[in-house]
Design brief:
By secondary structure, the protein is an all-alpha fold. The protein has a single domain, classed as Helicase, Ruva Protein, domain 3, CATH 1.10.8. 75% of the residues lie in helices and 0% in strands. It is built from 4 helices and no strands. It has helices spanning 2-44, 47-59, 61-76, 86-96. 6% of the residues are buried. The mean pLDDT is 90.
């Protein structure tokens, strides 16, 4: 039984090491991806537009991620001729965000 227990412990240690290695590899890949994305945003956006995107990321991270993906795709397809300014970014955001409806409540005399 001692040999069986030793084999089990050894196998468990191997599995844990593989999981740790894979997690480290995944974290490294994520860090590389974030660096590439950051460099792409630096090439695509002006400084003011990057600052606005950073503020958007704080308030609505999913919107910022979506916007970044779309901008990267536009740049890769060659549809961007120059850097996107803050004003152009605001226009893009206006198209992405749904229009808000104003709700007014009127009291009627009973």
């Amino acid at each position: 039984m001692d040999e069986l227990e030793a084999l089990r412990k050894k196998r468990l240690a191997q599995i844990q090491q593989q999981a740790a290695d894979q997690e480290a590899f995944q974290e490294e890949r994520n860090a590389e991806y974030e660096d590439q994305k950051k460099n792409a945003m630096r090439a695509i956006l002006t400084d003011d537009a990057r600052e606005r995107l950073g503020r958007i990321r704080v308030a609505r991270p999913e919107l910022a991620e979506n916007l970044e993906q779309q901008l990267i795709m536009l740049a890769q397809s060659g549809r961007l001729k120059s850097k996107i300014t803050d004003q152009q970014l605001r226009e893009i955001l206006g198209k992405l965000l749904p229009k808000k409806r104003d709700i007014t409540i009127r009291k009627r005399g009973i």
